[in-house]
Amino acid sequence: MRPPDSFNAFCSQSTAVLMGASAGALAGLSFAAKDLFDIVGHVTGAGNPDWLASHPPAAQTAPVVQKLVDAGATMVGKTHTDELSRGLFGENAHYGTPVNPKAPDCVPGGSSSGSAVAVASGAVNFALGTDTGGSVRVPASFCGLYGIRPTHGRLAFEGVVRQAASFDTIGWLATDAGVLARVAAVLIGFNADQAPRPTRLLVAQDAFALSEPATVKALTPAVERLRHLVGRVETQPFSKLPLSEWRDRQIALQSREAWVTFADWIDQTNPRLSFEVAAAFVRGMGVDDAALEAANRFRRERRAEIDELFPDATVVCLPTTPFPAPLRGQPRSSMASLRARILALTCIAGTLGCPQISLPVAELNGRPVGLSILAAPGSDAMLLALARAMASTL
Amino acid sequence: MRPPDSFNAFCSQSTAVLMGASAGALAGLSFAAKDLFDIVGHVTGAGNPDWLASHPPAAQTAPVVQKLVDAGATMVGKTHTDELSRGLFGENAHYGTPVNPKAPDCVPGGSSSGSAVAVASGAVNFALGTDTGGSVRVPASFCGLYGIRPTHGRLAFEGVVRQAASFDTIGWLATDAGVLARVAAVLIGFNADQAPRPTRLLVAQDAFALSEPATVKALTPAVERLRHLVGRVETQPFSKLPLSEWRDRQIALQSREAWVTFADWIDQTNPRLSFEVAAAFVRGMGVDDAALEAANRFRRERRAEIDELFPDATVVCLPTTPFPAPLRGQPRSSMASLRARILALTCIAGTLGCPQISLPVAELNGRPVGLSILAAPGSDAMLLALARAMASTL
User: Fold this and answer.
1) Is B38 on the interface with A (CB under 8 A)?
2) Taking CA B351 as the corner, what is the angle to CA B348 and CA B357, rounded to the nearest 5 degrees?
3) What is the reported pTM?
4) Binding-face residues of B in 52-91 toward A, CB within 8 A
5) Active site residue A111
6) Distance between the two ends of chain B, CA-based, in angstroms?
7) Does B337 lie at the interface with A, CB-CB under 8 angstroms?
8) How many CB atoms lie within 10 A of CB B6?
9) Is residue B262 part of a domain?
10) What is the DSSP letter of B375?
């Protein structure tokens, strides 16, 4: 049942498979689920061997997986994740780095690394991931896939290993915009005929300014296509405040929440973690109440400006990542600075709870890089319809 | 050659063995070496699988090991260490916890855990360890052994994996005070006939006050024997300053030095570490220059007082640890507070560079606990002679 896996996308320690219902909206499609999703009778591994060893088999299948199976899709396996979903590159110290089929010398992106690779390698039609700080969008960009982070809270985060509750979302990846939308129809009720159309495109000047010039250049033709589709276009900064400040506030909130999520388990288990992940937890532990309150206030203020940030039916476009996938196996110090640059782009959706879709519209020296569309919370259908319209302009 | 090992003292991944010379001061004795000591042709593992995997076999045997072999002792194996020598309990997340032969439900102490267990189980006559913050003295106390931390710098720390250079020492453990001294004779030139005699015993009131009452009570008969041996006795605080301040300054210095020691390797390798050890590195990274300078100043001031702290030929006695070995497998939070209490006693020798010997003189509900004797830097011979004299009073 499990497809051949020369790309190390799938968890060899789990044999979870769920046959799809014989009929339904997704009949005939196959999918994979990141190893954060519970499958009844199997231990959810979360990318860490001590997590795997210290948890019992799941008593229930995560509702989102069950919905897909009930709609006819077959789950063929669980996929590698960055350790405890903490990472953006897909380099797992315990289970290895899944191979990016589009750029084998480069990281696949993470933390939904195995899900992205399973889709990009053609092993499945789509795959479930999670996105807390960018974990669906980044691998979508690096592997040349469609990837959606829905509005925060739109899908119940149930039967899934949490990281930071106020940012955690369930998302999915596909090579085909139609499949992306069909999954959305099952999970969040998307109907193309009823989807609102955007009336204004904002090209986020501040986000493009934080991206590498070659990446901006590679994305330009796709931005042009978006301009034509939407009609009314403005090029200006998305925020009056530097996106680096958005990022730093999200890092404070997310890392503190992640520490709280895992603190008891860490205390009981003293687990083996890669240094990078352990350091992130220690930093979260060190976010004091004053920093936390300042970051919370910042987020409340930004959310209070949502109507102002998205007047009419605004769609914002920005690079999903400021560059294509970096090389695998670089030192921590190099990767840390790259991660900070990515987070300055991905933090917008995290901070506001916005939906965002990464579109596989460009390549740079053979390495994919995504263009994202993002809109106000609740605008998932508008983005899905726009993603399909973009696909049809190719 | 390797003795049977039902106590998990020895590293199964290393087969290093060195036959002793046919004659010499240690002929017929067997010993083990903590897996921080280089043995030619073998990779030194340092208690971490990623260290093992990222280092080549040693080109030379550590001089201290070679000296012992040249003196006739046979090295029968390498022993487990706390990960990268960072720990006081002997609980290694990667290789398991060596079993304390005297108290199997309790930790053996660390970081020279396997060396202590190899000796306490009778597998070898003595074993080499290292002591940076207490790593020979603590397992000596918990396993009921003699254990010496010599004067800092007395033995060159060569061919041994460093932790924090200004605290690192090479020490050894034995069940027999005579063997302890014979090894000293080979390594640092001890001659019992020329050893000075202490003229004053200071019972360190502040150190006893930090120990559990039942432990203090259990140690009392041994303190009495020491009183008789030395003659002149005073009971007063060792320091005018709280020992917790000595400890906190040593933690700042040691953890920062340890970070510097391992930073490049961590950057290149992003190793898997237990959370506890990773957190210690992150804390070391966070010791800023001001805290470092304050801690250095504190240490300089204390070292300037050495003549005042050890008038005449003073020997200080104090509990090696404030309690016998705690239970194995407790949560991090419990162990962290126990560790802090131990360090308030072990930091004296670390801060001053003093020699210290733990004597196996007491038990509490079947669990060993050691009494320590400590003197001014350079007084190793005086302490070794006193340890032998104490043994002869039994």
Assistant:
1) no
2) 45
3) 0.94
4) 91
5) yes
6) 34
7) no
8) 10
9) no
10) -
How many domains are there within chain A?
1
What Å distances lie between residue B63 and A301, B56, B60, B181, CA to CA? 65, 18, 8, 19
* ipTM reported for the complex surpasses 0.95: no
Which candidate from B93, B267, B270 shows the least CB-CB separation from A272? Answer: B93
Q: Which of B14, B30, B34, B102 is catalytic?
A: B34
- At residue A1, the pLDDT reads 53
Among residues A135, A211, A255, A372, which one is catalytic? A135
Q: What's the CATH number where A227 sits?
A: 3.90.1300.10
Across the interface, whether the CB atoms of A332 and B275 are under 8 A apart is answered: no
Which member of B93, B271, B286 has the closest CB to residue A275? B271
Mean pLDDT by 10 residues, chain B (394 residues): 80 90 97 98 97 98 98 98 98 97 98 98 98 98 98 97 98 98 96 92 98 98 97 96 98 98 97 97 96 98 97 96 98 96 98 98 97 98 97 84
- Within 10 angstroms of residue A205's Cβ, the number of other Cβ atoms is 14
- Pairing label, strands B30-34, B74-79: parallel
> Can you state the percent helix, strand and coil of chain A, rounding each to 5?
40, 20, 40
pLDDT in tens, A92-115: 999 999 999 999 999 999 999 999
Burial readout B187-214 (b: 16 or more C-beta within 10 A, e: otherwise): bbebeeeebeebebbbbbebbbebbbee
Query: What are A218's two structure tokens?
Result: 């590679």
Catalytic (active site) residue A166: no
Q: What is the span of the domain harbouring residue B113?
A: 30-192
User: Which token pair is A96?
Assistant: 């290895």
CB B88 within 8 A of CB B73: no
In this predicted structure, which of A166-180, A291-305, A380-394 has the lowest mean pLDDT? A380-394
Note whether B274 contacts A272, CB cutoff 8 Å: yes
Of A379, A381, A382, A361, the closest CA to residue A370 belongs to: A361
Whether a cis peptide bond, with omega within 30° of 0, leads into A111 is yes
Which amino acid is it at A371?
L
Instruction: For A32-71, write each residue's pLDDT tens digit.
Output: 999 999 999 999 999 999 999 999 999 999 999 999 999 9
